[in-house]
Amino acid sequence: MMDYELFKTVVKERIKDYMPPVFRNYRVESKPVIKVNQTKDSFCLLPPEQNRNLAIPTLYLDDLYEDFMGDEDLDRVLQMAADVFIAWSGYEVPELSGFRLEDHKDQILANLISRRKNGKLLETVPHADLMDMAVIYRLVTSINEYGINSCIITNDMMQDAGLTPEEIHGLALENTPRMLEARIYEGDEEGVFVVTNQAGVCGAAVMLDDEQLQKVAQKTEGDFYILPSSIHEFFAVAVEVIKPEELLQMLLAGNRGITPLQDQLSQCIYRYSEKDHRLSTVASYEKKRDGETEQA
Predict the structure, then answer these.
(1) Is 12 helix (H, G, I), strand (E, B) or coil?
(2) 200 CA to centre of own chain
(3) pLDDT in tens, 190-243
């Protein structure tokens, strides 16, 4: 079996052998990219300087290697990667020229992520803390039936736009419920509801919208627990239905075996007080890693 480091080297050296001559003057670039809950090895082909407004698709070498390990067919993996680059490269992206964040303030959305798992990312982006979670912000370029296209707003983007973290946070709280309406669905059991948004993407951010949390409280007929199943949605459960410790075991099982790493949000169960309009942590689990115990 070819190890990962050798695989990366071979892919970068041979990828253009599988592509048309027009790509011969493109430059192969690979670098670590900090994403939500993980760091991945990005892989792209950069066009000549005069064509930098062209779309540049990005693949991830670690994902390609996982695919390769299935049958060890390197030619198949290289051809697949080449097909993606050929299909998606070359489109004009005029908005990349002279782009200014300050002209797109109405497209800034809130995104809740794990604070514990994203220390490096949070050093580079404006954010606000919410218990063991963090609110980061995305600039949305499109919303359609397939989801949303967006990028995370960085400190550099914020500073270039002359905005403060507080201003971006305020814009996100205003824009998010307008652009992505909350959705509250009945669960399989009485007193249980699934809360997300119309796109089913970054829907846990509904936790930031007290108006929607009050609507959930009306359905649960009072206070409710929140099981943060992923960054895309959460379960709201009437406090009379189940104990928070039981919900915690469900959350632990979900994070360990069901929810993909990139979508995991929290190690805690929260309670929303209908009277006080307030979220609080009522249970959390410890996770041991590298011989140390981390508390959410």
Answers:
(1) helix
(2) 12
(3) 999 999 999 999 999 999 999 999 999 999 999 999 999 999 999 999 999 999
